[in-house]
Amino acid sequence: MIHSCSEERKMMILWSLCLIFALSNSILVVIASPSQHLCLPDQRDALWEFKNEFYVDSDVPDYVKVTEKWRNNTDCCSWDGVSCDPKTGKIVELDLMDSALNGPLRSNSSLFRLQHLQKLNLGFNNFSGILPDSIGNLKYLSRLRCRTCNLHGEIPSSLGNLSYLADLDLAENHFTSEGPNLQLVLPKLRSLISIDLVYNQFKGTLPSNMSSLSKLEYENQFSGPLEIGNLSSPSKLKSLIVGENNFNGPIPGSLSKLGLEYLDLSFSFWNTGRDIVDLSFFSHFISLRDLDLSYVVCS
Question: Domain Leucine-rich repeat-containing N-terminal plant-type: where (predicted)?
């Protein structure tokens, strides 16, 4: 009887140890498992093809060579500059700013297969070509930044398809237009809050119907009177930068009703009826915190 109880006790201890070991392994597996899904194969392949569409300057520091650090057949959600939706594994953000990429951004680029991109930053690369119409295929984009990319030509009309686009930065390129594309495209971007088109070669009049904007930066070669669309009073527009243009009308008094906090009219020509700007004009801008009138020419 004593022998039987001893054997039974041994078996209970053995089963307890097995149970503890099994639970310990389960806990370790849960802890070791990643919190996000792995990058989907088609997403990884599209990124890898995109990387190979460009060459990277060999004389730039290694930390700049973002895409050169990518390794095929690994989880692309862990690659530098890549962010994925943790629930679906789909790529939602690509930040390759200043990555020393050289070569044209082709209309059939594998980039445009990343249909769930929400934020795209390609700034400070050398694409030396046009911004292709295919950019309009990325219909979920809320942020598009292509600053200083050596892009030229007109802004593609397909940008008007990006109904979620809130932040658009195409500054410091060589975009040219007499105005039609801007006039047609920008009013369609009903989610747009911030736009920066400084240091391009746009001409003509400013686009209208931009009452949703909180930040507007132009600095180009626009002419004619300053008309910034059907802005309500007060509007959401807090920052207005329209320097380095050639407006031939007066500074519109309606600007004082917009609740602007920052106004930059520098390096521009204004027909004010006198040879200097009347500073008392700006006393009506009750929300204004920063005003730049440097190198303003009046007549």
Answer: 41-85
The chain-wide mean pLDDT, for the chain, equals: 81
Cα–Cα–Cα angle for 144, 199, 59, rounded to 5 degrees: 75
Per-residue pLDDT at 103: 96
Q: Which residue has the tokens 């979620």?
A: 164
Q: What pLDDT does residue 296 have?
A: 81
Q: For 233, phi and psi rounded to 5 degrees?
A: -130, 115
Could you tell me which of 220, 240, 224 has the C-alpha nearest to residue 177? 220
Report pLDDT for 191: 86
What is the residue extent of each domain of the chain?
1-33
Q: Residue 102 pairs with which residues in a beta bridge?
A: 55, 126
Q: Are 215 and 196 in contact (CB under 8 A)?
A: yes
DSSP string, 198-261: -SSEE-SPPP---TT-SEEE--S--EES----S--SS-S--EEE--S-EE-SPPPGGGGGS--S
Residues 176-208: pLDDT tens digits? 875 557 777 877 888 888 888 888 887 766 665
The per-residue pLDDT for 127 is 96
Is residue 144 within 8 A of residue 135, CB to CB? The reply is: yes
Helix-then-strand count for the chain, H and E: 3, 19
User: How does 163-177 read in b/e, with b if 16+ C-beta sit within 10 Å?
Assistant: eebbbbbbbbbebbb
Strands 223-224, 201-202: pairing is: unpaired
pLDDT at 268 over 90: no
